[in-house]
Each structure stands twice: as C-alpha cells, then as structure tokens.
Write a structure and sequence with these properties.
Largest sheet: 4 strands, antiparallel
Number of domains: 1
Strand order of the largest sheet: 1-4-2-3
Helix content: 10-25%
Number of helices: 6
Order of helices and strands: EEEHHEHHHH
Structural class: alpha+beta
Number of strands: 4
Radius of gyration: 14 Å
Strand content: 15-25%
Shape: globular
C-alpha cells in the first residue's frame, strides 16, 4: 500500500550523489559485485574530502551510500509528485532482506514515505552508480521520458 506523497515535506533521497547540498554518508557498500549489500551506519556521517578519498580508484557512489535532500523537479526520477525510481525499484527489483534494515534516515526517507516497507526490503542492494548493476536494477534506474 502506497503512503501519501511527501512532495512538500523536503524528504531525503536515499540514493543521492556526494556533491548534493547537505549530503551525508548513510552506508557502506559491501557484499560482492554480483550481490552488493549496503551496511547502514549507526550515525550518518558528513561528506568530507577525506572520506571521499577512501574510495580511491572507484566512484564514491560505488563504495558509499549517500542521502541528501530530495532534488524534486531537478531530478530525472521525480514526476512532480513521486520518485519514480522508488516506484520502479519496488516494481522490478526483488527483495533481499526479510526485515527492515537498521536505517537512520527512514523517518525522512522519500522511498519509505512513498513506498513503505517494500522499498526498504530492496534498498540494501541499491548502489547509486555501478557498472555491475543487475538487469532489474538497471531497468528500475532508467528514467521514463515524456511520461512514457
């Protein structure tokens, strides 16, 4: 069951880029290339040059999960009301956990507010930018253009 949209509540995007205003690190990507799993931090950490440098030869988004204020209309996944990325993740991507992960941003997370538990059960496998994403994640991450 979908929750009411939260377009006016300035929710957090759980798959943000490190350069976004107010971005914090909420998790570290572990697991394998084929089956990544985010380990959520007990306390989100501010993004610093020192932390980003730990990604070394990788993109920071392949090593860390970031959250930041939802970009709303500036994001290709936002349809003016909801995050279509969250909707497509729930539609196309299988669950990877049976219980809600220990996530410190859940109460303000757009995906949670919009899709509820179903988004959270899929979230640990989301790597914001990865060359090795599963077909289901690639499909979910492809924005629909012109409402199509």
């Amino acid at each position: 069951m979908k929750r009411p949209n939260c377009a006016n509540a300035a929710p957090l995007c759980p798959s943000a880029e490190p350069h976004m205003e107010g971005a914090v690190i909420v998790g570290i990507v572990g697991g394998t290339v084929d089956e990544p799993r985010v380990g959520y931090l007990d306390t989100p950490q501010p993004v610093t040059d020192e932390l980003l440098s730990r990604a070394e030869k990788f993109r920071p988004t392949e090593i860390f999960r970031f959250a930041a204020k939802c970009a709303g209309d500036s994001c290709v996944h936002f349809d003016g009301t909801n995050c279509q990325l969250a909707s497509r993740i729930v539609e196309f991507v299988p669950t990877v956990v049976d219980i809600l992960p220990a996530c410190q941003i859940r109460s303000g997370c757009r995906w949670w507010l919009q899709e509820g538990k179903e988004a959270c059960l899929r979230c640990p496998q989301v790597v914001t930018r990865s060359h090795e994403a599963s077909d289901a994640l690639r499909l979910a991450a492809t924005p629909k253009l012109n409402g199509g």
